[in-house]
Amino acid sequence: MNAFKALAEGFRGYVCFRGRMTRASFWNFVIATHLLIFLLLLPAFVEFMKFYRFMLEDSRILDLLTARVNPASIDLEEYLVQIVQELSEEYLAAGNHDFTWPIVGLVAACVMGVLVLLPTISATVRRLRDAGQSVWWVLAPLAALLPVPFVGVVAQLLTLVTLALCCMASKPELPDIPQGE
């Protein structure tokens, strides 16, 4: 299945929380959306790497990294902030930097992230149902939003469990159980 078909299938049922989704369809959709967001972020990443290389070529950073400057003799945090601020100004003053595409890419990636949120949740619900698992696992990543220490780590572990459940093979559909008559 190509990326466009995977995206179309995922977006086609973006508000459909009923039914099932095969393992291949689900992962093709997830990979296609992540690949698209990665491609949108690529110009910003390239610009960041140029700036990172520019920073590493500065003697003050090299002196700090090679311990020519004693970190105990200075306020390290203030020193690093000052260096990065000065290097940022020097990098911008050097010119030849067009930030249009990196900014457009960052904004587009954020918009794409919001656009795929609901389709991804619905696809995950359908995939969990297809694997014969509880659809409530889709709520596991929300635990990271709780203002409790170390809950973020637990939420990440629960997210990994949810992803593992999405990797399970499809289960045969169970017949409907008639309600009491």
Largest sheet at a glance? Answer: none
Shape: elongated
User: What class, by secondary structure content?
Assistant: mainly alpha
Q: What would the average pLDDT be, to the nearest integer?
A: 83
What is the rounded Rg? 24 Å
**Helix and strand element order:** HHHHHHH
- The helix content is 55-70%
Oligomer: single chain
Strand content: under 5%
| Alpha plus pi helix count | 7
For the termini, the CA-CA separation is 45 Å
Low-pLDDT regions: none
How many strands?
A: 0
Helix and strand arrangement:
Elements: H1 3-12, H2 23-56, H3 59-65, H4 76-94, H5 100-115, H6 117-130, H7 151-166
Helix pairs in contact: 1-2, 2-5, 2-6
Keywords:
about 180 residues; mainly alpha
Molecular structure report:
The protein has seven helices and no strands. The chain is elongated. By secondary structure, it is mainly alpha-helical.
Quick gist of this model?
This protein has 181 residues and is mainly α. The protein has helices at residues 3-12, 23-56, 59-65, 76-94, 100-115, 117-130, 151-166.
